[in-house]
Amino acid sequence: MNSSDISQELLDDFFTEADEHLLNIRRILLAIETSENEVCGPEKIGELFHNFHSFKGISAIVGLASAESLAHAGEDLLRLMRGGQIQMGEQEAGVLNAIIHKLEQIVAAFRLRKPMPAYESLLAEVKSLVQVSPGFDTAFTPVSDQEKISSKDFKEADLPGASIWKYTFAPTKELIARNINVNTIREQLSQIGKILKSTPVVKGKGIITFEFLIAAKQIPVDAGEWEAKGVTIGSEAEPKTGDPVSSNVNQTVIEEAHSPFLAPSHIVRVDLKRLDDLMRNIGEMVIHRSRLGVQLSQLNTNGKHLDLQGVEEANRMLGRSLRQMREDIMRIRLVPIAEIFSRLPFVIRDLSRESSKKVRLKLVGQETAIDKYLIEKLKDPLLHMVRNAFSHGIETVDERAARSKPQEAIIELSAATAGDFVIIKVRDDGKGINTAAIIQRAKKAGLKIPPTVDNEAILNILCSPGFSTRDSADRTSGRGVGMSLVQSTVNELGGKLTFESKEGQGTQFTLRLPLSVVIAETFLVSAAGQICAIPQNSVREIFHAQETEIKIADGIEMISYRGGVLPLTRLAGLFNLKEGIAGVRCVLVITSERGSIGLLVEKVLGQREVVVRNFRDPLIQVAGVSGATELGDGKPVLILDGMALTAGNVRPDQNLNLAEVSS
C-alpha cells in the first residue's frame, strides 16, 4: 500500500501508537540492562512480546513492510525466550536494541517520505539467533549485497602487516547439536584477529551462511579444525583506494543520528474526564447565556426603572464559567516534560555503547508540566544539548581516571517551575569549557571577539551559526548547528539561555522559558502614568511604605523588611519617568530563584487575567519586560519579567541591621 493512499488521520494514529510501543520496549530493555537485580522473567518478556506484536500489526495496516518484517523477527526471538529455548543475555538484549533503533529509523523515514534505511542484514542476524531452536521456521528475506571490504576498514584494523582472510560458516543441525553456532564461531574468530565484517548470506531454501572478514597477522594453519566446525577459509587482498564499497558502509558515521521523537507534533492525548469537564462547563455557559438574554429582554428601555442587578449577576456567572473553561483548556495543553526527558536516556545509552565513555543520564523534575507548544519546540534543542554534553563535555574513562574522577560520568537534565517560567538545566561533570581554546578557534573562524570576555560572550560564540569545536562531524556533534538552534529557539519562545562552566569540573546550560504562552494571572500596577502588569506567581507579598522609610546604601535604595533589608527598584525609574508627589507607595516583593527585590509603584490597580503576547523580535526585546497585552481599550500594556527584575541586587541571604545603613 502506498502511503499516499492512506488518510492523514490514520497515519497520525500510526505514528502516535508506533512511538508509544517503541518507547515501552526501550524502557523495559533499559531497565533490564541498568538494574543489577533486574530479573528478566516471563512478565517482562511478555510485555516486550506484546509491544512487538502490536507494532507489527499497525505496521501491516499502513503497509510498512520493512518494519513489519523486522518486528516479526523480534517477535520470533521473544517467542523462543518465552518458551525457554533462549535466555535473555547481553547479545540478545543488544540485538533487540538494534531492532528498535532500526525501527525508529524506518518509521522516521516513512513519516518524512525519505528512502528507507537498509535493514536486511540485521533481519538475517536476528533470524540466525533462532536457529538454536530445532524445527523453527527460517524463512529469510534476501540480503542486499553491501559488505565489500573498504580500504578504510583495512586501515582501522590497526594491525601492521596484517592480511585479510574470509571465514565462511555454514550452520547445520548437526553443528547446532554440538553447540556450534554463529555466536561461538564469532567468539573464536575474535581471538585470532580483528573482525572487520560479519555478513549473513542467504543461499535459498532456508539455507544461510555467514561470512567473516578477519584482519590477522598469522596465516591460517588449522584449516582442518575449522572445516570440522563448518568453516572454510579464503584470502582477501587489501583493497585499492577507490574500490567500490557499500552505499551504506557505516551509513555516514554509524548512520546519521536520528530523532527519537516519532509522534506527530499536533496530537495531544486527553484524559476523557477532562473532556467531560469541558462539556459540563459549556453546558453551564449555555444556561448563563440564556439567563443573560432573559435579563436583557426585561430591561426597561425608557431608563426610568433600569435594574442591572440581574444582568450583572448573569455576567458574573458567565465570567466564572469562562474562567473555568480557560483553566480546563490550559490543563489539556499542559503536558509533563517527561514527554521529552524519558527518551533521552536511550540516546545516551546508544552513544555510550559506541564510544569509550561511560555516561549516565540523571533526570530530575520529569513531572513538570509545560505547554504542548513548548514541548514540540524544545525536542530538538534538548536533544542537541544532551548530545553536545556527551561529545564535548564528558571525558573518556581513562581521562576521568587520570583526573581522579569516577569512571561513570553524570549528565543531569532537570526541570522546575519558577513563577510563570520553567527552568531547564543541562549539567555535566565533565572537563568544562576551555575559554582560551574557544577564543582561539573563534578568531580562526573570523568571529568578532568583544573586549570583555565573560560567560555571555563565550555563549554568543558557541551559539554562532556554523561554529563548532570539532574539525569533523560524528553522529553526536561537529556540525556547527546545535547551539545555534538552541539559542534561536529560546529567543523565539521569549526565553533566555545562560551557561556556567568551570574547567575540569563541568558545564551547566540553563534555559528559562515562559511556562505557557497564552493567558496569565497578573497584578496591574501604575507609576508616573505608566500601567504595567506583573505575573502574580512572581509576587510574594504587597505592602505600603512611606518615602521616609526608604534608605540608601552604596547607591541602592533599601527598606526594612522582615528583620532585614530589601533592595528596591522603582517602576518609574525603569522607564526613566518622573514620579508623582512623594507619599505612600506600594511595594511588591518580587521573588525568583536568585532572591527577592521590592518593586516600588504608586498604585496597585487590581488583578486581571491577560492574554500574553511575547516579544519574539530581538530588536524590540527589553530587559525586564517579557511581553505585552491589552486590557480591552486597545492600549498596549507591558508585562514585567520578575526574573529579570531580580537579576541585579537582591535581598541577601543573611539579615542586615538597618541601623548600619546610612541614610
Q: How is this structure best described in words?
A:
- The chain is of the alpha+beta class and about 675 residues long.
- The strands form five sheets. The chain has a six-stranded mixed β-sheet.
- The longest helix is centred in the N-terminal third of the chain and has 27 residues, at about 10-35.
- Mean pLDDT is about 75; it is low at about 130-160, about 235-255 and about 655-663.
CA radius of gyration: 33 Å
Largest sheet: 6 strands, mixed
Share in β-strands: 15-25%
Report how far the terminal alpha carbons are from each other.
Answer: 82 Å
Count of helix runs: 21
Q: Could you say which overall geometry the principal axes of the C-alpha atoms support?
A: globular
- Would you report the number of β strands? 23
List keywords for this structure.
663 residues; alpha+beta; disordered C terminus
SSE layout and pairing:
Blueprint: H1 8-34, H2 42-61, H3 65-83, H4 90-112, H5 120-129, H6 151-156, E1 163-169, H7 173-177, H8 182-189, E2 194-204, E3 207-216, H9 223-228, E4 231-236, H10 251-255, H11 272-297, H12 309-333, E5 334-336, H13 338-341, H14 344-353, E6 358-364, E7 369-371, H15 372-393, H16 397-402, E8 408-418, E9 421-428, H17 435-444, H18 455-462, H19 482-492, E10 496-502, E11 506-514, E12 519-527, E13 530-535, E14 539-546, E15 551-553, E16 556-561, E17 564-570, H20 571-574, E18 584-592, E19 595-601, E20 603-611, E21 613-614, E22 625-630, E23 636-640, H21 642-645
Parallel strand pairs: 6-8, 13-23, 17-19
Antiparallel strand pairs: 1-3, 1-4, 2-3, 5-7, 8-9, 9-11, 10-11, 12-13, 12-20, 14-18, 15-16, 16-17, 18-19, 21-22, 22-23
